[in-house]
Amino acid sequence: MHVLKGAEHELAKQLATLIAVLLVLTSCGQPFTGGKLKKAGLLVPDTISDQVWGTKGYKGLLSIQSEYNVDVFYKEGMKSEGDIERAVEDFVKKGTNLIFGHGDIYEPIFNKLSERYPDVQFVFFNGDSDKKNVTSIKFKAEAMGFFGGMIASRMSKTNEIGILASYEWQPEVAGFIEGSRYQDKEVKVDVEYVGSWDDKAKALELNKKLISRGVDVVYPAGDGYNIPVIQQLKANGLYAIGYINDQIDLGDNVVLTSTVQNVDHLYETVARKFNDGTLESGTCYVDFQEDIITLGDFSPLIPYDYQNKINQLVKDYKQTGKLPNEGT
User: Fold this and answer.
1) C-alpha closest to that of 148 among 232, 254, 256, 223
2) Pfam family example for this protein (predicted)?
């Protein structure tokens, strides 16, 4: 059990970036009126040190601590139902009334535990719930894939690009294909599925296959393996579209841009709404319109006029909710 005291760790305050996003969570139920935020807890299936998905959740927890001066707790490696139940019980005993499950694996157990702990608000990602004290937040990721696909298609020299996805159901995969073909109808899109978010060895082997087929831009849509895949592409003089984080720091001569999910900012927004009594229950959606999904920095390799074009298309999408291939 890792404990971060509300009055301690000045460094946590420096790491936290406070935002003023007026997040609109659509398609939700009624707000859960469980009272003010007392303490917050976080369960992650793997680690907070992965520098991608888990780290974003941890930074979000730190921002809650900094903003509300409350104790926060986290536990890593929370995958089995038994471990999750014991962790939640431990959090509740310590007075925690807002608990985040950092992934979709928490859907069944949080829906179940919500009845046992009616005074606790449970939050998880990319699942569904109709419980009055559970909020599921889904990322509408098709658009981010669409714009990433446009850029990959525009910058490919071989006219062959690839997606290294975790699962077939990922909406960013379909979006990437749509965007690449909107940019160039003749582009070839090669898709491989890792079947996991974090199987680095398999991802690297599949990436080698993509490279051998002439693919020169790859979208590694898995937060647990995208960094080594990008490093492998860099070693071969090829390009990538970053995923989850703005990964331009891995090399602006390899990362053309990134499809970013600002999960850390989302955590603070959820906590604020919970504390205000306006956090809605049920299944909710976030996208570019809430600035929770964004594009990362552009590589200087991308022509400036094309950068402007993409920025304008993103702006149009935020205003209309329609992608370029859907008309106005």
Assistant:
1) 256
2) Bmp
- Scanning 159-295, the segments in alpha helix (DSSP H) are 171-183, 200-212, 226-235, 263-276
Domain annotation covers residue 58? yes
Nearest residue to 258 (alpha-carbon basis) of 168, 141, 171? 141
The total number of structural domains in the chain stands at: 2
Q: How far is Cα 156 from Cα 181, in angstroms, rounded to an integer?
A: 12
Q: What is the dihedral of CA 273, 278, 282, 285, to 10 degrees?
A: -60
Are 89 and 175 within one domain? no
CA–CA separation, 3 and 275 (whole Å): 21
CA distance 26 to 291: 14
Q: What is the largest CA-CA distance in the chain?
A: 59
9 pLDDT more than 50: no
Residue with tokens 């970036």: 17
Asked if the model's pLDDT at residue 2 lies above 70, the reply is no
63-93 pLDDT, tens per residue?
999 999 999 999 999 999 999 999 999 999 9
